[in-house]
Each structure stands twice: as C-alpha cells, then as structure tokens.
C-alpha cells in the first residue's frame, strides 16, 4: 500500500493556453521602479483526486491584469487613463477612463510586498485564444511621483503547452 501511495496511481496533466506579453522597450528608456506589469491572464480549472489524479487547465475567459512588485518604501500610486488591446489586426477592447482609475501600491508594511495585483479587467467572450496569433496591449498611465502621461506597449504571442508527469513527481515538486 505504501509503495502504491508513494508511486502515485495517476498522472498529472497540465494544459495551458495563454499569452505572455512583454514590454517593448525603447533604447535608453525604461519604467522606474516599482515597474507596472500588465498580463493577459486566463482562468484556471482543476480536477483533483488526492494521490490518484490531478489535472489543471488554463483557458478562457481571460482578463487584463495590472500589478507591481514593490518594496515597503515604494509607495507611489498609478493613474490608469486608458488601455487598448488588439489581437491580430482586430481591436478587442479599448477602455478609456473619464476619470483616471487610481491604482494604489501602498499596503502592508511588512517587508517585500511581492507581486501585488492593482486592477483586473475581465474580457469575457470578447477575447479568444488563437495559437500563434500576436497580441498588442497599449497602456496610458501616470505616476504620483512623476509628472506627465506615459505610454507603454506590450507584445505577446499565443502558445499552448501540454505536459504530463507522474503524480509522485507532481507532488514532490510542489
């Protein structure tokens, strides 16, 4: 019985359909810290039978997620003015805020705050995964510790990853 439990009776399945978007940097120009990060994040569905089976799948509906990785003494806020998402050559979503949305970095006063989500915008059915399709995300914002509007551009490409491993390996790696 012990050998059966340690060996794992099933397999760990992992499927991921997602877009990784990276900031397009201009020569000599980069964001000051803390850096505003933007991602296109899928939902997660899990099926789990302890010690026998575990499956996790990432897929739609998607959302646009704004976050920062900051230290305690980093305490600016961001004012989000607009963002525009295109997939291929098609406009998926364009959000213009009549009053800029305040995204506050300040929070816990206990060391590194880590990656902190500031705002999420659901895309629902307006955005679908297409493997290999290019996406572009343009964000207009300003910081409380600087003057002026900034625009950052993100590019990404859809990719699908599938992997399988024994449950023993999956449990030991967690």
Give an account of the 3D structure.
7% of the residues lie in helices and 63% in strands. The chain is mostly beta strands and 174 residues long. Strands 1, 2, 3, 4, 5, 6, 7 and 8 form an eight-stranded mixed sheet that branches. Strand 2 and strand 3 form a beta hairpin. The longest helix has 7 residues, at 167-173. It is globular, with a radius of gyration of 20 Å.
Shape from CA axes? globular
Our count of helices gives 2
Helix/strand/pairing class, anyone?
mainly beta
Q: Helices and strands, in N-to-C order? A: HEEEEEEEEH
Low-confidence blocks of residues: 3-7
Helix content class:
under 10%
Q: Which sheet architecture does the biggest sheet show?
A: 8 strands, mixed
Total strands: the figure is 8
Q: Termini separation (Å)?
A: 22 Å
Could you tell me the strand content as a percent range? Answer: over 45%
Question: Please, what is the average pLDDT?
Answer: 81
Radius of gyration: 20 Å
């Amino acid at each position: 019985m012990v050998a059966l439990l340690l060996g794992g009776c099933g397999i760990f399945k992992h499927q991921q359909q997602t877009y990784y978007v990276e900031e397009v940097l201009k020569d000599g120009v980069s964001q000051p810290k803390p850096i505003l990060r933007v991602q296109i994040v899928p939902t997660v569905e899990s099926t789990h039978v302890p010690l026998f089976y575990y499956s996790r799948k990432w897929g739609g509906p998607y959302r646009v997620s704004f976050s920062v990785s900051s230290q305690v003494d980093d305490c600016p806020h961001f004012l989000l003015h607009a963002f525009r998402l295109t997939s291929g050559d098609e406009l998926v979503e364009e959000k213009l805020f009549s009053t800029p949305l305040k995204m506050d970095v300040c929070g816990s006063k206990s060391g590194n705050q880590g990656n902190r989500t500031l705002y999420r915008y659901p895309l629902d059915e307006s955005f679908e995964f297409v493997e290999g399709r290019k996406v572009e995300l343009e964000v207009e914002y300003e910081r409380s510790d600087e003057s002026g509007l900034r625009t950052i551009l993100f590019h990404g490409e859809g990719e699908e990853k599938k992997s399988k491993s024994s449950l023993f390996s999956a449990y030991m790696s967690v």
